[in-house]
Amino acid sequence: MKKRNIVVSIICAVLCCAGVTVIFQRYQSWTNQAFDKLAAQNIKAYSDSQNVEVTARVENVRTTLKTIAEMVQQREESGGGTQDLKDYFNAVSKNEDIQAEGVRYYRFDSIDTSVMSENDLKMIEQLKKGESVVSDIFPSENENGTALYYGIAEPIFVDGKAEGFIRGLISSDTLLYSSQTGFMRTDTESFLMYEDGTNAFTENLSEERGPYVNMYDSLENIGGSPDQVRELKENIKEKKQKVMIFMKGKEPVYVSYSFLPYNGWIILNVFYSADMNEYVVTLEDNGKKMTALLIGLAAVILLLVAGIVYHSNKEHRFERKRTALLANFSDTILCEYDRRRDTLKCTSNISRLLAVEQTVITEFKKYIFDSGLVYSGDHQVLDKILAGHPKEGETAQYEVRLKTKDGTYIWCRLDIITIGAKRERRLVIKVTDISGEKKKEMALVRKAERDNLSGLLNRGAFKEQVQEYIQQSQGGCLFLIDLDNFKDINDKYGHLAGDESIRKVGEVLKTCFRAKDIIGRYGGDEFFAFVPGRMTRDVIDGRAADVVHKVAAITLDEAPDLHFTCSVGIVRCGEGSTFKDCLKRADEAMYKAKDRGKNSWFVQ
User: For this UniProt entry, which segments traverse the membrane (predicted)?
Assistant: First the structure.
């Protein structure tokens, strides 16, 4: 009997050890998968943000060149010539905010097409058709030697016919630059390639290509298997984004990519995490030693101890994974929310950024509403997070405004992943301050909507906002303002005086209209403003008179004898109107004001 008990005890101990081992391995697999998902999500967000930043940078240059093209067009059509614009082009080229070098005006009739490549001839044909062009990368000489550039060109039409184009050179480094910092950013390589894997920086160079110019071949050298590289090719061909994980020895290598809307360019990012991998391996080794000790104890006290071993290992694995995540996200706040106990535990750095003094918050739902930690307008988002029932391993991302120590609110991104069994389900939350990204995003949007010379809305942004008012049946009055005899200013005093005139008119119009009114520059010497809501005739006349009088009061230091006047056409835009129709009627009203002797207004 005693022998039998010993055998049974041994069998139970073996089964217990085997069970604990299986459970331990399974839990390790789950936590590793959860970590990989969170890392992939972070890397994809980096690639997407990099793509948006690069695209915005290109569009900023294109907007600037379009504005210059309109100015050159006006000079050509008015017969003013462009010989004196060289200094202006040089000034634009040296402007660091624009990032376009070598800005020049080329006429089609002065270009020798016989020495051009097939690609160059194709771009010339596109420009003649009125299309914007972004060229491939090519080498060019600068003051420091030879560097790689790509060109952006905008066509110029004179009297309805394509006569030439404005071209600027942009350093090819800007196609891969990103201002982002933080998790897995320091050990990252970025490449620009085409769909077939060709490196865009060497495709058009005359020198002999190196052995690893094709990026797909290079990926096999850093751990990508032929099947993984084949899958990557298929994903890129189908324009499907996916973060892939290669194994370079025992070290994971993360590969992400995004598609630029120019020339079929693809940004390929390779992230290395050797230091992190060594740290995780060390923790795994320590975890195995602890597990062996617990299994030994479980063999002594059999099934009772087996339950304790499993519980202790589960808690240990959770703490290990949390420590690993903290090592990766040291520049962020990491929190763990226990749904059953309604308790939030956070890393100690939370008090440096947010209006939270303690790292453990009990009765978290009540605390949120009592403390005002979350902006009231975002409570609905928080309710969705806390009331949801996600499955284990499921991830989500939200953006909310959180209160800082000084009482202000900043935008934060919450990356959430669910871990643990059903009854012990917890949310691991990464809190990242994205207020800087939000500010840059809004700054880029505002810059793209503005006319560089006057500081007012450009034609496209003005049209979009006015159309929205009209479609909402709010209506209003459209003012079309044209400077009288503006061509004489450019001819007599030069284009710099003309530019200063446009700038001062923009400042004057801001004082003539309210902050909620929409003011923009139509182009050349024409401006427009839209006043939402109903206006009586007396109010309209008063506003128009204010515009005429304040424009007449403008003076220029370089032209003290210059007197400004303007003609204003005004129409009411009611329900059922279109922006095009309102603009046409306002133009007719403006010309009637000119027929009455200029320096006046006419209400249609």
Answer: 6-24, 254-272, 292-312
